[in-house]
Design brief:
Shape: globular
Radius of gyration: 19 Å
Number of domains: 1
Number of strands: 4
Number of helices: 4
Structural class: alpha+beta
Strand content: 15-25%
Largest sheet: 2 strands, antiparallel
Distance between the termini: 43 Å
Order of helices and strands: HEEHEHEH
Strand order of the largest sheet: 1-2
Length: 139
């Protein structure tokens, strides 16, 4: 009697493991218009992929007149987009200057609009539940 082939699904699942929480996840990245709180673009990647790596791979076209606001996960965004802002990091073993701390607070108050949109998607269970369809249709 011939041997049956083994199921190799666990190898494919390993690509989507986030490595930290031992879950098989997808990462969603949204670009939100602050004026009317609309989602302009969405990119989906593997759970263990870094935020900025997903941003580079998605090749989202951005007009140079648009200002991009990112968090600390997007270090290096200034090299790709001239009008982008990310928070200042505290120097190792030092303190953040008062004007940098004030600038980070202003940036956070502007970015909270995007955070609220993502929160509403999670409340509606769009981004929070298990995705049970094919992975290639997730985007």
């Amino acid at each position: 009697m011939p041997r049956r082939a083994r199921w190799n699904g666990h190898k494919k699942q390993g690509r989507y493991s986030n490595g930290k929480k031992r879950r098989h996840t997808r990462k969603a990245q949204l670009i939100v218009d602050q004026a009317n709180r609309q989602i302009l673009c969405a990119a989906v990647g593997k759970g263990r992929e870094h935020d900025f790596q997903l941003f580079k791979r998605s090749k989202i076209r951005r007009a140079t007149s648009i200002e991009c606001l990112g968090d600390r996960g997007y270090q290096g965004l200034q090299k790709r987009h001239a009008r982008s802002r990310i928070p200042q990091k505290k120097p190792r073993g030092g303190q953040l200057r008062t004007r940098d701390r004030h600038g980070n607070r202003i940036l956070a108050s502007q970015r909270v609009v995007c955070t609220h949109v993502i929160g509403k998607l999670k409340v509606c269970k769009i981004l929070a539940d298990h995705y049970r369809n094919c992975r290639r249709r997730c985007g």
